[in-house]
Design goal:
about 250 residues; Zinc-dependent peptidase; single chain; binds zinc ion; 6 strands; MtfA_fam; four-stranded mixed sheet; alpha/beta
Length: about 250
């Protein structure tokens, strides 16, 4: 950890993102989705995220500042509209080098608990912690269809409204409910969906996570195949990623 970084994270008054890090933030491919008018807000949220959230290296990971920045940069794309801070309940981000094993505590459909741990690339736990596989964060930065940061932080937003599944806090829900329910049922019927990960058919919560992944990783394809869904998220996130081609084969 460099000296300025320690100073910057040492608490006290909020300070703007240091200039060197503004340059680094612009190197994150997805930051190109942020229009100039929203850039100061984006930078401020990334700075707040880095100051407030404790990163914990797990599984032998050698945590680097650039890794914190990448996670913060991807996570803060989801909260440009949020009026109330930066994932206020979230305290820790645990980062593993790759997929990690978690013990199974949920009974399966037969009521049995399988003792064998399962591999995961991300988890969001009761709003105070998010666990991520760095290899999968990197894959998202390189244009993979999976974006574990978008997925897990969508769960964080979803948990703002424990009484509603698959929806963040919104002033009104009519359009959200109408579009999301119709598209969720469509995915549940579809055997080979063209864009959305079939895992989204598990529940409305997972559907929201999967749709967010597609919005940031395959925006043009999402717009083409599910334009109402795309427009719903465009209006919610205040971003129009289909207007930017980040990867040559993105669509
Ligand atoms: Zn999930």
């Amino acid at each position: 950890m460099s000296a300025w970084w320690r100073r910057w994270f040492g608490g006290g008054e909020p300070s703007p993102l240091p200039e060197r890090w503004t340059g680094q933030l612009r190197q994150i491919p997805h930051s190109a989705y942020v229009p100039p008018a929203l850039w100061p807000r984006y930078e401020a949220r990334v700075g707040t995220f880095l100051r407030q959230k404790r990163f914990i290296a797990c599984g032998g990971l050698q945590l680097e500042d650039s890794q914190r920045l990448a996670v913060a940069a991807l996570a803060c794309l989801l909260i440009l509209r949020e009026p109330d801070g930066v994932y206020p309940p979230l305290r820790r981000v645990l980062l593993y080098p790759d997929a990690f094993l978690v013990p199974q505590t949920e009974p399966d459909e037969l009521g049995l608990v399988d003792d064998a741990p399962q591999a995961r690339i991300g988890e969001s736990w009761q709003r105070d912690r998010v666990i991520l596989s760095w290899a999968d964060v990197e894959a998202a930065l390189a244009g993979d269809a999976t974006n574990v940061v978008a997925h897990e932080f969508a769960h964080q937003l979803d948990d703002e409204t424990p009484e509603l599944s698959g929806a963040p806090a919104l002033p009104e829900y009519a359009r959200w409910a109408e579009v999301m329910q119709r598209e969720y049922q469509r995915l549940r019927r579809h055997r080979r969906p063209p864009v959305l990960d079939p895992y989204g058919a598990e529940s409305p919560e997972e559907f929201f996570g999967v749709v967010c992944e597609a919005f940031f990783q395959q925006p043009q394809a999402l717009l083409r195949h599910h334009h109402e869904l795309y427009e719903l998220l465009r209006d919610y996130f205040l971003l129009d990623p289909a207007s930017r081609l980040l990867w040559p084969d993105a669509a």
